Structure formats: C-alpha cells, structure tokens
Amino acid sequence: MEILDQTFLVKLVLSFLVGSIWITSVTVIAERFGSKIGGFIGGLPSTIVVALLFIGLTQSTAAASQAAIMIPLVMGVNGFFILVYLALVKHGLIKALVSALLFWFVIILILIISGLNGFWLSLGIWGLSLVFCLFVTNQVMSIPHTSGIRVPYTAEQIITRGVVSGLIISMAVLITRLTGPIIGGIFSNFPVIFMSTLFITYRTGGVEFSRSVAKTLMLSAMINVGVYSFTAHFSYQYFNLITGTLIAIAAASLSAYSVYRFIRRKARV
Q: 0.85 exceeded by the pTM?
C-alpha cells in the first residue's frame, strides 16, 4: 500500500508538471504563431499518455487497457464541450466555460449511470461526434483563422499560467484515485487542457482568437487522442506497458502528421 501511495504521488506530481508546462507552451505557441498551429499542438495526446501509463503502473496493464475503452467516447463529449463554448463565448467567457462544463458533467453522468462501456460503442459515438462537430464548425459557424498576437510576457504571468493549469489537471488526476479503471479513464480525459487554453487565449487575444484556437484544438484533440486511446486499448492487451505505450505514441504521431498537413492546407485556402 505504501508503494502504491508513493507511485500515486509521483503520478500526481508528474501530472502537475506535464499539465503546467504543456498548457503554458501551447498558449504561448498559439499567441506567437496563430490559432491553427496553437490549436494543433494543444490537441496532441499529453496528459492522457501520463494518465494511462500510471494506471498501468499503479494497477495493471489490463486496467490501463480497460481505462482506454471510454476515452474515444469522452473525446466525443469533449467535442460538444467545444461547440457549447463556441456558441456562447460571444456572450461572455465565464458563461461559456461554465455552460460547457455543466453540459460535460450532465452527459458524463448519464453515461456512467447507464453503464455504457463497450469499446466499439465508444468508438462509434466518437466517430459520429467527430463528423457532427466538424460539420457544425466548418459549415454552420463562421470561424476564421487568426494570426499570432503580441503579448508582453512577464515571469509572473508565465508562472501563474503554469501553476493554475497544473493544479486543474492534478485535481482531475486525484479524482481517478477514488474510482475504478472505467470511471478513471473517463476523468483522465476531463477537458482541463481545453478549459485552460480557452481561458488564457480569450484573456490575451479576445473572443475571435479564442474561437479560432478552439476550432483547431477540437479537430486535433478528437482525432489524435482518439487514435492514441484506440491503439493503446489493443496494444496493452498484447504487449507490456512500455511497448504498448510506444506503439500508441507511434500511431498518434502518424495521425498527428496527417492532421497537421490538413490544417496547413486549410490555412492556405
């Protein structure tokens, strides 16, 4: 039990560090290079890699495989989280984030109570959600690409971003301590990176900059995290934890390359 507790503390600290460094870097990249590159980087698998890896270390590789079952479905819900934000952010940042978060919790609560946990069902819902979210953002909403903005950075500003983002992610990881693999997998994909990134980009670049980042963030995250979790679910069944993780990272890297090329083509249109 002592070893388990020590390992969990390592997980908590590592989640804080990964989350704070990752989100701070993403927001700076978005501000410097524009919404498409920033949103793309923000959607790459990051905390989910750490979460599944440490579920495997603290429990078992089979538990990590089981936790990955619900991640594609949760990414589908995360896509709707972005849609709610996009629809409401012109009426205020807090209203948009709180409404999107309430929507997320209601849908997730329904899923938990219903007991839906089949992988292929999760994958099917993820696919339908991806198609619907892309259709709405590209055909219904008018969200232009925005260029980078000039932000006068200070050490205090960067540290504050990192600490706040890291604390949010650490709290999400802490929730998984009290749950089994399925619910733990759900909350390991809690949209903390979305919330932090959208909050920071809104404060520094305004409504349209944040909406533009959100659009690309949604595309990148839904595809790349979905591919990672899909691959991890199966690779953990046939390989050890480290090998399975590396295979999943390789698959996500291929999908990320394809998404990046797609985003670049769209940027030139």
A: no
